[in-house]
Amino acid sequence: KKRVVSGVQPTGSIHLGNYLGAIKNWIELQNQYDTLFFIVDLHAITLLYDAQQLSKATKETAAIYLACGVDVSKASVFVQSHVPAHVELMWLLSSATPIGWLNKMIQFKEKSRKAGDENVGVALLTYPVLMASDILLYQSDFVPVGDDQKQHLELTRELAERVNYLYGGRKWKKLGGRGGAIFKVPEPLIPPAGARVMSLTDGLSKMSKSAPSDQSRINLLDPKDVIANKIKRCKTDSFSGLEFDNPERPECNNLLSVYQLVSGKTKQEVAEECKDMNWGAFKPVLTDALIDHLHPIQVRYEEIMSDANYLDTVLAEGARRAAEIADSTLQNVYQAMGFLRQR
Ligand code: AQP
Fold it and tell me: 206: CA distance to ligand 1 center in Å?
């Protein structure tokens, strides 16, 4: 089976964008691929963060994965920091990463500009090297990536090729390796169309955990009345009827797309159903569809969280399975890079 890895950061609460853009797609991927889904806690500390919240958010994110339908009989679910090989490989990869590659990363430029120099840790710059190690450790074939992560995956691919070139091939064979590449070069898996969810208060920016206003996003665990209220107050326009793909109506396109994804209808069905509706008629329909979709997830989430041991057991087993693969890659890399290994 081909292998797929993916993860979400335990920063803030998981929202509809994280769900529709990532976690929901995993449910299909786990039937087709060998999948590893992790909670990327080491990535969550690249900007100033609340240390008192990290472990709680990590547990909650894991519980959300399971509540959304990630099935631990098919996928390995674990916490990134529970598998130390991620950090070890990152150090080894750092030595092969030209600093110019990292300086070019758009996300680094944007986030560091916003945060200001005093708040930017070195980890924000080297974050893509950790991401490369998350992927390369598992010899992944595919990585689901949204637009914002494309550049980082490209860096991962270049880094894999560079390490294969520097330490693989003939050199690698001479050192006792089995020949061939050290790392598999992963391919992007582009998520289904319409999976980029935009803010409820501005149809041109993406729904995000770090946006200051909670009104801009639907959190997966929002109670019914909060969902209803957010939809009631969300940004709309004054055109008549509702339509997809009109560049002058980003909010309309976004809300129809959300409705399509949570109702399970096709784009044509939604376009037909909503073309003559006004906002007053559509908003309750969207609210009900959201509540119907999220309610079972919220019920399962409560069940999972009410049995603390269950989650601990799942995460321990996930980390054990992941470490088996990760450690074998890591040992190969140490060997290829010429380290004296302990006997
Ligand atoms: N609005 C979105 N629409 C579709 N997919 C989204 N993702 C995030 N926002 C949207 C996807 O969720 C996954 C996990 O994201 P992450 O936790 O690594 O952080 P992020 O991409 O930076 O997400 P946020 O929530 O928007 O955080 P901030 O506010 O920190 O930027 C990824 O697969 C991502 O594509």
Answer: 9
Report which ligand 1 atom has the smallest distance to the Cα of 144: 33
| Burial class of residue 22 in the structure, from the number of CB atoms within 10 Å of its CB (0-12 exposed, 13-18 middle, 19+ buried) | buried
**Measuring CA to CA, which residue among 152, 119, 142, 182 is closest to residue 33?**
142
Residue 117: pLDDT band with limits 50, 70, 90: confident
Ligand 1 within 6 A of CB of 196? yes
Task: Give me the pLDDT at residue 67, please.
Answer: 98
Residue with CA nearest ligand 1 atom 14: 8
Beta-carbon contacts of residue 25 (< 8 Å; ≥ 6 apart): 144, 191, 192, 195
* pTM, entire model: 0.93
Span from the CA of 188 to the centroid of ligand 1 (angstroms):
16
Cα 312 to Cα 59, 68, 82, 105: the distances in Å are 9, 18, 12, 36
Distance (Å, rounded) from C-alpha 194 to C-alpha 230? 21
| Alpha carbon nearest to ligand 1 atom 13, residue | 18
For residue 224 and ligand 1, the question of a CB distance below 6 A is answered with no
The pLDDT of residue 173 is 56
Whether the Cβ atoms of residue 146 and residue 191 lie closer than 8 Å to each other:
yes
Most ligand 1 atoms within 8 A of CB, residue of 18, 29, 70, 153 to mutate:
18
pLDDT of residue 333: 95
Q: How far is CA 119 from the centre of its chain?
A: 24
Sheet arrangement for strand 75-79: 75-79, 34-39, 3-8, 142-144, 187-189
- The Cα 65–Cα 37 span in angstroms is 8
ipTM value of the model? 0.95
Q: In whole angstroms, give the CA distance from residue 325 to residue 176.
A: 20
Q: Are 105 and 152 in contact (CB under 8 A)?
A: yes
Q: Residue 145 burial by CB count (10 A; 0-12/13-18/19+): exposed, middle or buried?
A: buried
* Polymer length of the chain: 343
Least confident range from 1-5, 78-82, 311-315, 336-340: namely 336-340
Q: Give the pLDDT confidence of 254-294 residue by residue, as tens digits.
A: 999 999 999 999 999 999 999 999 999 999 999 999 999 99
